[in-house]
Design goal:
Two copies of one chain form a homodimer. Chain A is α/β, with parallel strands linked by helices. The first copy, chain A, is built from 15 helices and 15 strands.
């Protein structure tokens, strides 16, 4: 099967001319091949062979292979326009037809989406008029550059809103709108490293992969901490690991909602363990990765607070998740004192550079400003409550149907037994890990959508099990015995 | 004057309630205050005091100040909607009026823009219909994730186009569409570091600031190399510095167009110097920062080639510069063999993570695909030629008017004596450094716009000099004696 993902084939002699792949297929359907490809990849994932594979090339040398290179064959090649295209309008017509079909695909994919924590329900028609402008918030949000086509006045409005949400005063915070949750984590952890240059990074093993990527990028020592079945950081293990590294400061990533299980680390307990292990407040730095729940938690009744009144250094959240946005974006808020260690002047921009990216998407602040202004705290509270209600509904119905499932307190991420059919997984775009899958209940996930999903799952499940080829998976090691409904534990 | 940029004032007691700044000003004009603020900052820059300043706070302690915090007072605060807003439509109406005024400001700012290398002339109306979708190319462009709302088929089409432009075969390259030129540089230099972990980073002192940011982020030793008056890397100095660090591999940033002077480093000479200094090809890695010129150079007659047939490891280019795009974006192309050292698997996404950002803007590939398909190589060649012609026109007219100016071969960046009036600088959004300013002639910069600019400059200049307060600046140390027209050198 892997033969179909061959990167070692002969060099395409047409590389400097027209490609071999026709770019105007009559029956254009990019999804067909992609589905096959994904199928292959998924199988590899299932078989735990997804890592770069070693294969012999023609010379018998072992070379690494990169999976999925066959995307070239489904890609929409760019070709040279004919000289008379402008006259005939052929090119424009072709592109319009590609885009129209693509829109149809996107609509379908959007309708059957459950697995990723993206709110797909938004209406930014009012902002379409601004797509004509190249809006770039170069450098620092608080310092103008000479480039006039920016949206800083909207960006700072958004930042103020988030700083208020997390209880840091206007004059004591710094922040910016990032390109995604990962950039927020990269920035928060970089701040930690600059404040405590020889600090060790601590993160639970269920932290987002960007946290470990940061450690590698920044050449930081990193200690992985165990997790509880809920997905929360195991504070007992955390303290033990702190004690065996007492000589070095601690930079701690705290998950305000883990990626897979939506588990919220106990921030207060983390701080307590640091104190118990003898770390004074100037010897640790906490970054809170609030990708999804950073915005939800403040609206959950009785939830512990993410607040700068506690000993934390930075919080990041994604903008395309709970708020919803056409493209990924995020928010990073930190204490003003921390960012000074990072900043340096760049006269060229007449702007200080304390961001990671420098050139920054000026449209993202407009989307966020628009949504926050429309919904307000009240609107978000309503949406959060609806999501939690719907998540409980989903979890209860799964369990009723005999499907092992878990829903953490404070969370709208329902973890359950991974469906046995990868076509089904792909159709509903479920995110999977080992034996478990999850659905993240976002504002765009309605009861009626959940019902469709549940009915189809229950129906299909009966089929999968009928032939005796499959049986319910054991998910006890993932979510604990109590939540498992396999033959052994039900 | 600095008193107006006070961050040490009392804490706004309204922080958890309504802000003190009205968010519905009758005479909303965000630019007025901003201009004053920029004025202050510019003066500070001129006086070389732009670095974080030390000032005493109320307790007499010295704290660092961050310039420009007064952005809070011009920001568009987000407030809670009234309960009846949905019924009355007040909120929608308010936001529509803010956006309408903002659009007017953007139009003006776009019309008077000369200083930044952004092509502001684009028409993506056909793509507006896709703004309804949350398009995210999670992870690797060549490997599908389970999230179906993506644009990989367009992204890979764009990447193929660039790989062909820089002469790397389809099956031998890897790349992705980045959020901006900086991300391309961060990725290219990270690749270099992963391939040669104890390598030293070499970059000319006129390299983009993101290169030095990368060195700091990645904890790499960095050697700054001198430049010639043109802005090109001084290869004599480069070789000398290589020879004094012979024991460690070299990671070299080569500028395909410096930020300020548009100088193109001599790639062939850089490679020659590495070889002369005894560095075999497995002991150096070259990243080409082609932010602007990476896309222009291939279309300039007799220009040296940026090509993977030479001993280079990666090339990056910005998408919002010569192509033009509503938001910043860029392209990074590298050899497939290099990216393997960086990649790791993330089952959660069913995708490998070799990008920096993970979640990636799926709209940017659509913009690039659309522009490249419409224009093709032929279209870009025409635009590049027009830009170079117009740049020569500008340079010639400046010199005719007695204004010291320089235009590098292969470049459309015209460097000249910094105007004496910061209002003028801001109006035309010129990028300045010390005594020089520049205009980057992009496809959106027409002869008629240049004429307006030149007429106004010449007229104003006469006024500035009339009172004897100012005289032409000496720019010999920036661009060489031959290009200076100050009293001493004219």
């Amino acid at each position: 099967m892997l033969g179909s993902v061959d990167v070692l084939g002969s060099i395409d002699s047409s590389i400097n001319g027209a490609g071999v792949v026709g770019w105007l297929p009559e029956d254009f359907n990019p999804t067909t091949f992609i589905q096959e490809l994904v199928h292959n990849i998924d199988d590899i994932v299932v078989n735990n062979k997804c890592d770069s594979q070693n294969y012999k090339n023609n010379n018998g040398e072992r070379e690494k292979i990169v999976l999925g290179r066959d995307m070239h064959t489904v890609s929409l090649e760019i070709t040279e326009p004919d000289p008379d295209d402008e006259v005939t309008g052929e090119r424009e017509a072709y592109m319009a037809s590609v885009l129209s079909k693509y829109k149809k695909t996107l609509t379908e994919k959007t309708n059957f989406h459950l697995g990723y924590p993206y709110n797909l329900d938004f209406d930014y028609d009012a902002l379409c008029q601004l797509q004509h402008f190249s809006i770039n918030n170069l450098g620092d949000p608080f310092i103008e550059s000479n480039y006039g086509v920016h949206s800083r006045q909207f960006e700072v409005g958004v930042l103020d809103w988030f700083a208020r949400l997390w209880e840091l005063e206007k004059n004591h915070y710094w922040g910016y709108i990032t390109n995604c949750g990962t950039e927020g984590n990269l920035h928060g952890i970089l701040l930690g490293r600059e404040v405590l240059p020889d600090g060790i990074l601590y993160a639970s093993q269920e932290s987002h992969y960007s946290v470990f990527k940061a450690a590698r990028m920044y050449r930081m020592d990193c200690v992985k901490v165990n997790t509880l079945p809920s997905g929360q950081i195991d504070c007992h293990d955390f303290k033990a690991k702190l004690l065996s590294n007492k000589d070095k400061p601690a930079i701690v990533n705290v998950n305000i909602g883990t990626t897979v299980k939506g588990a919220v680390d106990d921030l207060d307990l983390v701080i307590k363990k640091l104190e118990e292990a003898g770390f004074s407040h100037d010897r640790f730095y906490i970054h809170c990765d609030g990708a999804l729940f950073g915005l939800m938690l403040p609206f959950v009744k009785r939830a512990p607070k993410v607040s700068f009144k506690k000993a934390i250094g930075s919080v990041s959240v994604s903008g395309h998740k709970f708020v919803g946005c056409p493209m990924p974006c995020g928010v990073l808020i930190t204490r003003l004192e921390h960012v000074n260690v990072l900043s340096r002047n760049v006269e060229y921009l007449a702007s200080r550079d304390a961001t990671i990216m420098g050139s920054r998407n000026g449209h993202a602040p407009l989307f966020l400003w628009y949504s926050l202004n429309r919904k307000g705290y009240r609107g978000f509270r309503k949406e959060v409550q609806k999501c939690l209600r719907n998540a409980h509904y989903l979890k209860d119905r799964l369990v009723e149907a005999g499907i092992g499932a878990m829903l953490n307190d404070l969370s709208s991420t329902v973890v359950f037994e991974r469906p046995h059919d990868e076509d089904f997984v792909r159709k509903w775009q479920l995110a999977c890990q080992g034996n478990i899958a999850h659905v993240v209940v976002m504002p765009s996930v309605t009861i009626s959508k959940l019902d469709d999903f549940l009915d189809e799952l229950v129906q299909n499940r009966a089929l999968w099990f009928r032939e005796g080829k499959y049986q319910p998976r054991c998910i006890a090691s993932d979510v604990g015995i109590n939540n498992c409904l396999c033959a052994l534990h039900s």
